[in-house]
Amino acid sequence: RGRFIPRSLLTAKSIRKPRKSNDLAEFVGIMMGDGSLSKYQAVISLHAVDDLLYSKFVARLIKKLFNISPKIYHSSHDLVNDVAVSRVELVRYLHALGLPLGNKVAQQFDIPDWIKINKSYSRACVRGLIDTDGSIIDLVFGSGAKSSVLGFAGSSAFGAPACRYREGRAV
Description:
By secondary structure, this protein is α+β, with helices and mostly antiparallel strands. It is built from six helices and eight strands, in the order H-E-E-H-E-E-H-H-H-H-E-E-E-E. Strands 1-2-4-3 form a four-stranded antiparallel beta sheet.
């Protein structure tokens, strides 16, 4: 009596911790774009109509990588699907891979080094980032020159410098 008795309710559920791969790098890109990490949960928030098929892709990717079936919560009021996993071990693993807990914009984090040093991982990460937050912006300049620029949601928000343009080039 009086001893600590381990309870399954208090034990963090284990997850599959995959090796670094293109799929994992793409998932990191997805999390960088529309994801968030709290102390107990990883959530990717996607548009309920426009990103419905993508929500299912993300859920399958999570299952493939971590052997966890995420929950998809729908908010008809906000037209959002939250693909969520409530696992402390997943949060710890993703944080160890370089994803920040809390407000990622305020922390101004960067693509993790393990991704940047591998060209294939870099492409996969950028694919996930573009799929969630990227857009192509067609610009017309004073001289009539046209240019397409890759932009990201919120890239000029929160005090980040906005791009300036001169004769068809971002500077």
